């Protein structure tokens, strides 16, 4: 609610840029504080709120369990850092700043309310206990992200935005169709109630509904072969927008797959096998695309697609340890991928380009920037003892424990993907920072402190995930246990088993004064 309320205020006060900044930062900082509070509170058990006091399943419920709380917290950190970064970069259109082209400038009055609405949509998607409200969350994301993607109104951004809107609308149509069919088959869209009713319907129908949902979520999560749209869409946007898209939007799709696979569609080995194949293809084909790139934004966009495969790998294992590793890896990847795209924004500011053929010598010109790129790049590649290495070890260990032929193929594919990721990021670092530049780069372009500090904070947060890996991984394991169990979630939503499905709300009074349920 805080980002939504702040979005209305910033829209009404669009002529007052300083006030907009204060409102936006305050709202996201307060939302982050609330998320941290939920992170600890939900560790004792899920927290349920019935919207408008309408009892489920008649009304919509919001459920904060360990999984949603950890996703809210890490996304809150990322959103706040990106917002602060954008304040350091963003200037009203029409002004000139060193190292910035007109297409890179952010029209601040539009950016703030749209960014806050995006934050509200993300929170709604993570907290909702209702499939249709999850669809609403995705539509909020679609509306706001389409505006953010086309900021500046350049032809390239309009083209990329058009492709993005078409793809996401197709995904939304598939999702809405799946919701209608699920409601027709079960009479509900409440996820806790679906966990009880779906096992009672025909297995063939249940599998068809599961695959349709996976198709819709797979487009949003950019799983191969549904990922072709992403590398062409993300690199065209301003650096803060690209960073928030890369770090968060695909993870909402991954979260949706994780939530539905563990809660309402557990124990379907055939679908798990399909997910394993898709995870392998996503990892390998994505990283091969990254190796072939000579633009650092496109290279990172392909690594984003590739590493979605690791998360799907953990989900497809359908074990508590695999799910825990997937949760930890999602948290790691949100912070590291976002930090890398923010660093690339600094590289573009300092070097005037993201083409590796035009960059070079930045390690000498901006040694601090070289460090900011090098640390999360190694983390993404999974170099020990960083968090990327720990997440991958968890996935590989559980893959070996499952021990099926396909699981072993995925273990090998994961190792190969990690090595190719290291090759891709080292190539980018070498060309951009180490080798001599092919063109003269200005030596007197300062990096704005307002952009460097949030980037450094996010890089430090990625390192914190390594330092605090023990407690965080333990939290992920408890989240995975509760998610795989299912009864914890259902019992929190319906604390009185005898009342499940009745949908009785607070007592209402008719016009004559008599009580009626």
UniProtKB/TrEMBL annotation:
Membrane topology note: Multi-pass membrane protein
Domain spans labelled NADH:quinone oxidoreductase/Mrp antiporter transmembrane: 129-417
Subcellular localization: Cell membrane; Membrane
Keyword Cell membrane belongs to the record: yes
Principal subcellular localisation of the protein: membrane
Alphabetized Pfam families for the sequence: Proton_antipo_M
Membrane-spanning ranges: 22-47, 67-87, 108-126, 132-151, 163-185, 205-230, 237-258, 270-292, 299-319, 325-347, 368-386, 406-426, 457-476
Domain of life: Bacteria
Keywords, ordered alphabetically: Cell membrane, Membrane, Transmembrane, Transmembrane helix
InterPro entries: CPA3_Na-H_Antiporter_D (IPR050586), NADH_UbQ_OxRdtase (IPR003918), ND/Mrp_TM (IPR001750)
Family classification: Belongs to the CPA3 antiporters (TC 2.A.63) subunit D family.
NCBIfam families assigned: PRK12665.1 (NF009308)
Protein's recorded name: Na+/H+ antiporter subunit D
Organism field: Isoptericola peretonis
């Amino acid at each position: 609610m805080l980002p939504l309320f702040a979005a209305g205020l910033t829209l009404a006060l669009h002529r007052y840029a300083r006030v907009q900044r204060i409102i936006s930062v305050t709202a996201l900082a307060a939302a982050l504080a609330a998320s941290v509070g939920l992170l600890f509170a939900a560790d004792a058990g899920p927290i349920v709120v019935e919207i408008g006091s309408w009892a489920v399943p008649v009304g919509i419920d919001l459920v904060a369990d360990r999984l949603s709380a950890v996703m809210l917290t890490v996304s809150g950190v990322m959103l706040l850092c990106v917002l602060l970064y954008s304040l350091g970069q963003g200037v009203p259109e029409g002004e000139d700043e060193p190292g910035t082209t007109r297409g890179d400038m952010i029209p601040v009055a539009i950016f703030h309310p749209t960014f806050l609405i995006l934050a509200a949509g993300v929170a709604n998607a993570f907290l909702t206990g209702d499939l249709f409200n999850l669809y609403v969350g995705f539509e909020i994301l679609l509306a706001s992200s389409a505006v953010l993607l086309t900021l500046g109104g350049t032809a390239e951004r309009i083209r990329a935005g058009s492709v993005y809107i078409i793809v996401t609308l197709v995904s939304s149509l598939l999702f809405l169709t799946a919701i209608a069919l699920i409601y027709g088959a079960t009479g509900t869209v409440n996820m806790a109630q679906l966990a009880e009713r779906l096992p009672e319907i025909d297995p063939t129908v249940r599998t068809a509904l599961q695959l349709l949902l996976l198709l819709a979520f797979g487009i949003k999560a950019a799983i191969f072969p549904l990922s072709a749209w992403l590398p062409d869409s993300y690199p065209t946007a301003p650096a803060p927008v690209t960073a928030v898209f890369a770090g968060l939007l695909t993870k909402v799709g991954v979260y949706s797959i994780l939530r539905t696979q563990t809660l309402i569609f557990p124990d379907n080995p055939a679908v798990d096998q399909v997910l394993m194949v898709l995870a392998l293809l996503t990892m390998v084909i994505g990283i091969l695309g990254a190796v072939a790139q000579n633009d650092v934004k496109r290279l990172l966009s392909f690594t984003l697609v590739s590493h979605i495969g690791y998360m799907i790998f953990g989900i497809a294992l359908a074990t508590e340890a695999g799910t825990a590793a997937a949760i930890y890896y999602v948290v790691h990847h949100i912070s590291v991928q976002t930090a890398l795209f923010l660093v690339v924004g600094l590289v573009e500011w300092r070097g005037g380009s993201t083409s590796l053929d035009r960059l070079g010598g930045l390690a000498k010109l901006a040694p601090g920037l070289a460090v900011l790129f090098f640390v999360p790049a190694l983390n993404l590649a999974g170099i020990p003892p960083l968090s990327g290495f720990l997440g991958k070890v968890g996935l590989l260990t559980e893959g070996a424990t499952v021990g099926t032929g396909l699981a072993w193929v995925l273990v090998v594919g994961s190792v190969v993907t990690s090595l190719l990721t290291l090759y891709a990021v080292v190539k980018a670092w070498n060309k951009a920072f180490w080798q001599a530049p092919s063109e003269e780069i200005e030596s007197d372009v300062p990096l704005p402190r307002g952009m460097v500090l949030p980037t450094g904070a996010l890089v430090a947060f990625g390192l914190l995930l390594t330092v605090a890996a023990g407690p965080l991984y333990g939290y992920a394991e408890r989240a995975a246990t509760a998610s795989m169990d299912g009864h914890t979630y259902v019992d929190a939503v319906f604390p009185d088993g005898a009342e499940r499905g009745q949908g009785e709300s607070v007592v209402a009074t008719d016009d004559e004064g008599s009580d009626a349920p």
